[in-house]
Amino acid sequence: MLRRRTLLSLPMFAGIATIAHAQTIDWAKVVEAANKQGHLNILHNTPPPMGDLWLAEFHKAFPAISVEATRLGSSELMQRFNTEYAAGASQNDMLITLWDDSLTKWQQDGWLRNFVPPEAAAFPDRYKRDNQIYTIQLIRSTIVSNKSRVREADAPKDWADCFDPKWKDKFGMDPPWRSVAIQEMLAVWDQLGIKDVAQRMKANGVRFFNGSAGVIQAVIRGDIQIAAVIDPPVISALADGAPVRVIYPASAVPAIATVAMLPAKAPHPEVGMVFLNWAMSAAGQQSLVDIVGATVTRPGTTAPKLVPGVEGQKIVLSTDILTPTKQSAIINEWRSVFGLQ
Fold this sequence. Notes:
With 341 residues, the protein is an alpha/beta fold. It has two domains: 2-138 and 258-292, D-Maltodextrin-Binding Protein, domain 2; 145-255 and 313-337, 3-Layer(aba) Sandwich (D-Maltodextrin-Binding Protein, domain 2), CATH 3.40.190.10. Helices cover 36% and strands 18% of the residues. It is built from twelve helices and twelve strands. Strands 1, 2, 3, 4, 5, 6, 7, 8, 9, 10, 11 and 12 form a twelve-stranded mixed beta sheet that branches. Strand 5 (128-129) and strand 6 form a beta hairpin. Helix 1 (27-37) crosses helix 9 and helix 2 runs antiparallel to helix 10. The longest helix has 14 residues, at 324-337. It is globular.
């Protein structure tokens, strides 16, 4: 059973809260304890209705465990967890959100549990952080174009193509001062040697739209012809039959990590452990691909139906390139160039 949470009280904490490593535990006993606890509180920001459908797959796999989900935007989610843990403990057994440097502070403050799920052995090391934070899915930056207005031969194939004068007043993006994904993309451009980006984009008439969904809708309407945008709204547009094409540039594919972690103190600790292990299993990862449509991080998982998987792509993770100092520099530069300071 899947329920959306509206109001929670803080329950008593029970279970094997001190468990650290999967190699030192009896997994069958963990699953037995989780089935007895019988309830998962999860705080996440996977878009509806796909997130609910994916959580329903967990309940199918573990029918003794009901699911109570609260979905919030990334900032609101982090504020909620900060408030809860400042009071002494989390009201949630599981957190899934986009990577943010706030998570590093949570680690330093001891708010996240050390736990190595049995299924973690299948994942590359770059997707496992300190036995606490696990990347289960990637949100990638792409170049999209309107197939009705841009011929295949003319469509941009890599990031440098977006600066061609033929796209003057026809290129769109989310404002860099509002989007971490765009900030990471710009950091990757800088690493690739693409310089003076804000000035060049201003000179070429870049247009800003409200959020990634607003960007892709502008492409579909024909307000712009090409755009730099993360792939979830592109996947939704493709599923709806919209006339858009998507390119994952060969030079580099910026990617924001969707990460999963366990609070160090939680109402149903073993349930959280079982869910995290399932989310990293072949079945959990494949269902995430099939339902949400974006790529995941477990090798061997079948690629999404509408966009390529990560195989053969030069993935650049935000955690590898986007520091707070770099973010501030990007935001300040763009706000200055566009007269917002």
